[in-house]
Large ribosomal subunit protein bL25 (Merdimonas faecis), 192 residues
Amino acid sequence: MNTLKAEKRTMDIKAKRLRREGFVTGNVFGRQIETSIPIKMDKQAVERLLKTCGKGSRITLDIEGTPYNVLIKDVEYNPLKGQLEEIDFQALVEDEKVHSVAEIVLLNHEKVTGGVLEQMLEEISFRAYPDALVDKVEIDAGKLRVGDTVHVKDLDIARNPKIEIQTDPEAVIVRVQEVYNTAEEDAEGEEA
């Protein structure tokens, strides 16, 4: 499991100033934490972590030598600056189900021929105990043909008895639509 180091921060220094100094701010909350813990983390370390982990991933958060088993709950970016600003973490408790999301990753999408691949959902919402958490769901799009549709209920995560799916099981994740070539039809119509 990935580990990220963090320091507790006092609220007398504004988050904006910390970001200018190369930090990302955040909070840790959970059932066994009385009040949320405001933290700061090295921006470069956070960016390295986010290359392999995203929202819904489990990591170890080391706050000044104390390890916490946490879930990345929210990642906030400043859309104007394109910069990472804040990350919130939920401390996990072994006997408590948590709400999380699994990112949908399409594999072999370049192998789809004769149609256009349309991805309708980016993530699946679910509840599970910490030991059953999933951060990514992979779909092999290379096996899909024109007219094929993949629903939430078709995935292994939906059949896992340890996971309660919150997203509609009938929701379409991805489908392959037929390509209609109107340019050729228009050219034929002009010749007539």
About this structure: Residues 182-191 form the longest helix (10 residues).
